[in-house]
Design a protein that fits this description.
This protein is mainly α. 48% of the residues lie in helices and 0% in strands.
Length: 97
């Protein structure tokens, strides 16, 4: 049987994702929007104990799950995803990674 491909650490893969010019700009800002939403006191549901924290947890959970899925593509050493073309394809406002 073949040897499993070693993977790069999560933080290094995250760094590769943010340095990739072909990754969408909006996609790179998703986690920052989620952090700002969690920190800023103006929310959809006021921050009363338990009930008010659920929307913050939901937004952070969705942003983290999305980021984990996207960064997983950058954990394989070697070429970055979609690096085969000579000119990088830029998708500045795409929600998909």
């Amino acid at each position: 049987m073949g040897r499993p491909t070693p993977k790069i650490g999560w933080f290094r893969a995250l760094s590769r994702y943010y340095r990739d010019p072909s990754a969408s700009t909006f996609g790179k800002l998703v986690i920052f929007f989620a952090l700002i939403y969690a920190v800023v006191p103006v929310d959809l549901i006021p921050d009363v104990p338990v009930v008010g924290w659920l929307d913050d947890l939901g937004v952070m959970g969705l942003a983290t799950a999305w980021l984990m899925r996207v960064v997983a593509r950058y954990r394989v050493p070697g070429e970055l995803p979609e690096e085969s073309s000579a000119e990088p394809r830029r998708r500045p406002f795409s929600v998909s990674p």
